[in-house]
Fold this sequence. Notes:
InterPro entries: DUF1836. By secondary structure, the chain is an all-alpha fold. Helices cover 62% and strands 2% of the residues.
Amino acid sequence: MKQLSKDSLQKLIDDLSLTDRISLSDIPEMALYMDQLLTFLDGKLSSFKRVGDDKLLTKTMINNYTKIGLIPKPFNKKYDTYHIILLILIFNLKNVLSISDIQSLFTPILKNIDTPDDDVIPLREIYSTFLELKQNEYMEFTSTFNEKHQEIKEKTLTATDKQLAELFLTVIMLVAQANASKRLAEKIIDQFFKNL
């Protein structure tokens, strides 16, 4: 088993690519055909792959998102900045929320998905805020993780295999955090976004 150290844990956190971002200036201004869109997104989101050949977004997924009204239909088979921003947001949300919950979340904010002019908050503004919040969350996550990991180290002092016990309890702690965040997000969607 690899040695567990503060540096090795920090390297794992850094490898999460939590600060990776596709800024608005990275998004092409020209509309893209499906294959170009997939190539662009696959390149920009590659740090999220767990295994090298993972498919993060596929033609089928994008077509389904269009079919259910989660993203607008492409114009002349081309996807513009609005589509790309929505797809990046959906990609980030679908790791935690169901597509149904994402629809419930987007519907009152984006109103009619085909007409960006009636959005409650302009999509570019939503996206910029998302990037800021993501950056802040990374900083807070690192700080909180280090504190909680120190607590775990203290609880495993009597373990026969201290390192294995630390890793096990670390995974349990991370799952508990993720579960609490996911459940709260679902409750907010259920109480404030559904049936709007």
